[in-house]
């Protein structure tokens, strides 16, 4: 499982580094828990669409693992925007609780093993 935590302000360059690091580690098919509950600024629709398109390109190169996004009230709209923009065929669910998100990802792993 990959755990990524976004806190404060996050730039497009940082998102790019995250996606590149996933590729370098060969973690494309791993389950991902992405915690954006600590964001203080807006990621912006254009950035989220760019990330969604990059993920879609990666999906053409192999299966992607499920993703659980943990969002606060302040980041929930951005999480939902991304979820609708990313049209990749993989399980994706948004949570407000980190432990609940982790349990869901573990249940996804149990379904495939």
Textual characterization of the structure:
There is one protein chain. By secondary structure, the protein is an alpha/beta fold. The protein has one domain: Rossmann fold (3-Layer(aba) Sandwich). Helix content is 48%, strand content 20%. The protein is built from 4 helices and 4 strands. The protein has a 4-stranded parallel sheet, with helices on both faces. It is globular. The model has no long low-confidence stretch (mean pLDDT 85).
Give a short summary of the structure.
The chain has 113 residues and is α/β, with parallel strands linked by helices.
Walk me through the topology.
Elements: E1 2-8, H1 12-25, E2 32-39, H2 45-59, E3 67-70, H3 76-85, E4 92-95, H4 98-112
Parallel strand pairs: 1-2, 2-3, 3-4
CATH third-level topology: Rossmann fold
Strand order of the largest sheet: 1-2-3-4
Please give the domain count.
Answer: 1
Largest sheet: 4 strands, parallel
How far apart lie the N and C ends? 14 Å
| Secondary structure category | alpha/beta
Helix segment tally: 4
Query: In angstroms, what is the radius of gyration?
Result: 13 Å
Secondary-structure element series: EHEHEHEH
Assign the CATH architecture. Answer: 3-Layer(aba) Sandwich
Helix content: 40-55%
Shape assignment? globular
- What is the mean predicted local confidence, pLDDT? 85
Number-wise, the strands total 4
Low-confidence stretches: none
Beta-strand content estimate:
15-25%
């Amino acid at each position: 499982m990959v755990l990524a935590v976004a806190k404060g302000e996050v730039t497009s360059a940082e998102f790019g580094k995250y996606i590149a690091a996933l590729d370098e580690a060969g973690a494309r098919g791993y389950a991902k828990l992405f915690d954006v509950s600590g964001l203080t600024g807006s990621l912006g629709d254009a950035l989220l669409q760019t990330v969604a398109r990059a993920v879609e390109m990666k999906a053409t190169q192999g299966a992607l693992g499920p993703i659980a996004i943990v969002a606060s009230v302040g980041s929930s709209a951005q999480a939902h925007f991304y979820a609708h923009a990313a049209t990749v065929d993989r399980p994706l669910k948004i949570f407000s609780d980190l432990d609940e998100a982790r349990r869901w990802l573990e249940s996804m792993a149990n379904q495939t093993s």
